[in-house]
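Problem 12. The chain below contains 397 residues. Write out its predicted structure in token notation.
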Amino acid sequence: MSLRGSAAVVGVAELKPTRWTDNVSTIDLFTRVGLQAIADAGLELSDIDGLVAHPMAGVPMLVPSTLIESMGLRCSFASTVDLGGATGAAMVWRAAAAIAAGQANAVLCVTASRRQRRTPTPGPKRPSGSGGVGGKDTSAWAEFEVPFGNVGANIGYAMIAQRYLHEHQATPEQLAKIAVHQRDNACANPDAWFYGEPITIDDVLDSPMVADPLHLLEIVMPSGGGAALVVVSPELARKLDRPKAWLLGAGECTTHKTITYAPSLMDTAIKPAADRAFAQAGVTRDQIGLASLYDCYTITVLVTLEEAGFCARGAGGRFIDEHDLRFNGDFPLNTHGGQLSFSQPGLAGGMSHVTEAVRQIQQRGGDRQIKDLSFAFVNGNGGIMSEECALILGVEP
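Solution.
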């Protein structure tokens, strides 16, 4: 079964990333951005009959019903997606699948994350491996890796970068160019964290080394925020006087949780996910006018370009040299600035790649609009190259 033309995105909303969200709850963020997306779609609350969300801090269970209650919805389809940075992209095709199965007609896909200042709390410190509805974390990661300090993403992506540089040739300047061109894109996006703050390759290479070979300006800026989409049936899409971004293809693949158990640091789950999306869409790589690639680190972009088939394995550095990655260049990439320069508001950071692709397909990119855009490729990446989801969006079904 192909999802080509099974649904379209008609509503999109995004909260401007902010450093701290001290005075607002996660439920408030979800509700605010969800209502904005519904309004942008030209729909009423009563039109929404599906909801896809993700696990929420402070709500250990029953997340969809919590949000349905908060927003005043009544849904015939509700689901939770837990795929890290691939969650936003994964929500879209699940919504389309529910619509194709006749379970819903208009599905709200919503992401939001708080970012709180940390203040000392009195009393005994809570064990890091306990709490939540599931109790103590008994995974292999918690038992064998956390005690020895293998925590956080910097270490894992630095290992991927080191392995890539061992097997293939890429220069620090080539990796830095990714960050520089995405910052140029951010300078055309007033909602980007680093709007109006261009950087140079020297700036990237002179920034502090965080985890060799990754510099500070090659790593995302965490923030708080939210993003949401409304996915509707073809029949409803055609009734609405709204620009549309049609889902043409989707693919997904998950191989592991932690990098210790990755089958390979170079043979990632990106390739099977991307291949399935392209096969469903009937679109070739050279038809893609926007690559909206998850970019927690510059190395993530480089590897994704290769694994998604835009260039041969090991040729990513040369591909970067040969192409202009800015919105008005010959290979537009992460035109909103990517998470490197737009910022990463939790799981809404991964969704930002979808919202930007939707806006561009809908011709709502503003000063950074890509000319004559027909097809966009989106990649979502969860964990440490663990969970991958690919989408292809287009102007026609």
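Discussion. The domain at 8-116+220-394 is CATH 3.40.47.10 (Peroxisomal Thiolase; Chain A, domain 1). Students who got a different answer should revisit the alignment rule from Section 12.3.
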